[in-house]
Amino acid sequence: MPLDATLSPTREMPEVPPEAEAFYREALRLLTESGIPFLLAGTYAVNAYTGIHRPTKDLDVFCRAGDFPKILAYFRDRGYETEIEDERWIAKVALGAQFFDIIFNSSTAVAPVSDAWFADARTAEVYGSEVRILSPTELVWSKAFIQDRHKYDGSDIAHVILRQSDQIDWKRLLGYMDQYWELLFAHLLNFRFIYPSERGRVPLWLLNELSERLRQQASLPIPQTPVCRGRLLSPFDYCVDNLEWGYVGEGEWKRE
After folding, report:
1. Which of the residues 3, 13, 48, 209 has an alpha carbon 20 to 30 A from that of 55?
2. What is the pTM of this model?
């Protein structure tokens, strides 16, 4: 599905130095020519959906885990530097000081890029190339856990809901966040607080569903394992909870 024509042709691109723009232009041209499926996310997707114009330091290129080695090899064979920063979720392609990220999962491994991310992808022209970008649904999902002292994407989520609420597949988003429904509820309450006149942009059925889960949860026993899931939101800000205060993190067994 293409973007709303009122957004794409008139928007200003994110601010980047001329040398970075030239690098991004060539990188997107090569990615498109490679035929390897990819999606553009981050600042450029937010820009496409909201028109927000702000500086950025790189491109966020999303792909399936099985495709990131293909992208690295494709650029390596054309003289670019390649790096696997973390085998679990991110790699990089660089030329001198310029680079772009190849992302195939979230940093905490809860949001792997899958076929579903491509099924509802939209298109936009970026630096002369027509590329697919994350749909508003997957864009919210990709940003939901980014909440630390130095990088917080809650405002991006609020702006995407404001400008693209009718394009978000709320049932699919709930499916992604079913285990983390409280985090989704928090983002939605945050949106209602920020935009009290726009509360109707979030479906009432979803608020009722999440409110009912909260009501039912209140009557359940308190969990016996002391868990802190804070490191899903920030790998660093909640270290003390897991390392010193006895809380177990996501994926850890109960400590005896």
Report:
1. 3
2. 0.91
